[in-house]
UniProtKB/TrEMBL annotation:
The lineage of its organism: Eukaryota, Viridiplantae, Chlorophyta, core chlorophytes, Chlorophyceae. Belongs to the cyclophilin-type PPIase family. Residues 24-127 form the PPIase cyclophilin-type domain. This is PPIase cyclophilin-type domain-containing protein. One of its GO terms (biological process) is protein folding. It comes from the Eukaryota. InterPro entries: Cyclophilin-like_dom_sf (IPR029000), Cyclophilin-type_PPIase_dom (IPR002130).
Length: 127
């Protein structure tokens, strides 16, 4: 492989996705404000996933993340929440219906990333 092809391959692997939209979520602990989290969405890489997340975060379709409890904490690793139907990790829905297909696996996950959980069929829901 020539230098140019190697450079293009490296660029495709290591480039950072472009944040196309930012949404925020205000958190509470036992009813007391705990702070705001601002999430940057990569709309070019995963437009449907971003539309779903933004709609759930804003609650503009009449349902969403508002009031959802945290249902799992993996200390030092992750916090799981967003089950808008059952609240315990067994439910979840998207703004497109029960679920929708994964758009990309190209975006690397790292500390501080927000990810959506795959269900039993490998599709996305609200969590």
């Amino acid at each position: 492989m020539g230098f140019g092809a190697s450079a293009l391959l490296a660029y495709g692997i290591f480039r950072e996705p472009v944040v196309t939209q930012r949404v925020f979520m205000d958190w509470e602990v036992d009813g007391a404000p705990a702070g705001r989290v601002v999430v940057g969405l990569f709309g070019k890489e995963a437009p449907q996933t971003c539309e779903n997340f933004a709609a759930l975060a804003s609650h503009d379709r009449g349902f969403g993340y508002r009031g959802c409890p945290v249902h799992r904490v993996m200390r030092g690793w992750s916090v799981w929440c967003g089950d808008v139907t059952a609240g315990d990790g067994t439910g979840g829905v998207s703004v497109f219906g029960p679920s929708f297909p994964v758009e990309t696996h190209a975006v690397r996950h790292r500390r501080g990333s927000v990810s959506m959980v795959l269900d039993e069929e490998g599709r996305l829901r609200s969590q």
